[in-house]
Amino acid sequence: MTLLDILPSLRSGSPSRLDAAVWPQDTHYDGDGDGGITLGGVALADIADQYGTPTYLLDEQEVRSRCRAYRKAFPEAEIIYAGKALMIRAVMEWVTEEGLSVDVCSAGELAVALAAGVEPRRIVLHGNGKSFDELATAVRMGIGRIVVDSHTEITLLSALATKPQQVLLRLSPGIDVHGHPAVRTGVHDQKFGFPLGSDSAAEAIDRLMRQPNLTLVGFHCHLGSQIDSPDHYGEAVRRMVGAMAQVRQDHSAVLTQLDLGGGHAVAYRGGDTEMNLPELADILEDALDAACARHHFPRPAIALEPGRAIVAKAGVTLYRVLSVEHVEGGHTYVTVDGGMGDNPRVALYGARYDVVVANRHPCGPQMTATVAGRFCEAGDLIAADIRLPADLRPGEVLAVPCTGAYHHSLASSYNCVGRPPIIAVGHGRARELVRRETTADLLARDVG
Asked: Residues 6 or more apart from 17 whose CB is under 8 A from it?
């Protein structure tokens, strides 16, 4: 028994173990109850009891706060939410109410955005493998801009557009931000767009200029993901404005829009670096001033596409402990009732997360453990070398912060385990946004 057990009133004065860099702002240890974690005024253990586990939680106020931070840092830029991070109707409503546009990359994402009431003119469609049907739907629905990613798309859009359709041309500026190969999209030799300065890019520009119903309004680029240095974006501005000036010289046309994509880093664990928005804003301003002055080019309208940076920190995932096994001479494995089916980022990218016990405030001895998933893969791990209570027991609830982005989006029904629900929390209440996928749902698709 600890002092906090004897005198519960001391709990509120005990030091918090929740890192503000990775948890939603309204996350606290409960000083009045059992000392567990609350989010939006709701105890996480109560949510686990009501909705089961695993469960994704989403803090609406955190999402809105991140939208406002971008609007404040870039008051003259268009902020376009990258829907692939988390595409559900509630999030579409929140971000558009906060003044953001929406980026989609499939017919399914487009359908969700439209179902949420997003105005078509505020939607941008991109992706390197857009089908004829997807392009036809986008044109028919009056989507604001389509990002052209290949010569085939120019051919298809030329046939589909019966009235002027604004397009952006995606260029790879040749900027290597390093990191995992799967998220380096600004280099020349990868699948997205046209290498800046290449003959292929020049041909694409020429073809677009000659299409009566395709209006090339600007360029698009995306450097990668989890970028914490704003200097890369300054260099992208310099190179892209130079390319825009070349179009003016070659075609006597002035492009007016420059979409710099997203990829802004967030902190997944304490001590991780993240993108500093005021610093990024200053660097973009300086780079625009310098590049436009050098080329005597009018300042283009800037767009940014944050996705992860809007929703990642707003998300928390709850799991229930199934077993705690100490391997003699090896690790201690804490197995939970989720894993790579609801969070494949560890297996895909080597992502690292914090994990804490949520149903109580731990204050005793700790152990170093690996939190393992329930799926039939040796690589199904959630976090390695995590400090957890030494007396952790089956049935307790663990919480993983910063899981709002690319968790629901990448989730699967591997091992025929249904995907978790998404529960919104705030103002002392919880409400279901997306229900849990059931065995009946899985069987309904199997028509064999």
From this structure: 29, 356, 361, 362
CA distances from 182 to 244, 261, 348, 418 (A): 28, 16, 9, 27
φ, ψ of residue 257 in degrees (nearest 5)? -125, 140
| Strand positions, DSSP E, 232-291 | 257-259
- Going from the C-alpha of 32 to that of each of 36, 45, 49, 91, the distances in angstroms are 10, 14, 19, 32
Cβ atoms 144, 122 nearer than 8 A: yes
% pLDDT > 90, the chain: 87
DSSP 264: B
User: Is 416 designated active site?
Assistant: no
**Short-list 342, 324, 428, CA closest to 60:** 428
Q: What is the mean pLDDT of residues 143-168?
A: 97
Residue matched to tokens 């028919």? 140
Q: Which amino acid is located at 292 in the chain?
A: C
More confident residue, 319 or 329: 319
Do 213 and 163 form a contact (C-beta atoms < 8 A)? yes
Taking alpha carbons only, the member of 311, 319, 313, 312 closest to residue 399 is 319
CB-CB contact of 266 with 309 (8 Å): yes
As beta bridge partners, residue 292 has none
CA 261 – CA 13 distance, rounded (Å): 44
What's the Cα-to-Cα distance from 1 to each of 6, 172, 363, 396, rounded to whole Å?
7, 60, 10, 18
Catalytic residue among 105, 221, 376, 416: 376
Give me the sign of the Cα torsion angle 277, 280, 281, 282: positive
Q: 181 pLDDT exceeds 60?
A: no
Q: Report how far residue 337's alpha carbon sits from residue 170's, in angstroms, rounded to the nearest whole number.
A: 41
Distance CA 195, CA 188 (A): 5
Q: Read off the amino acid at residue 280.
A: L
Alpha carbons 58 and 24: distance in angstroms, whole number = 9
Are 22 and 392 spatial neighbours (Cβ–Cβ below 8 Å)? no
CB 163 within 8 A of CB 211: no
Which pLDDT tens digit goes with each residue over 311-322?
Answer: 999 999 999 999
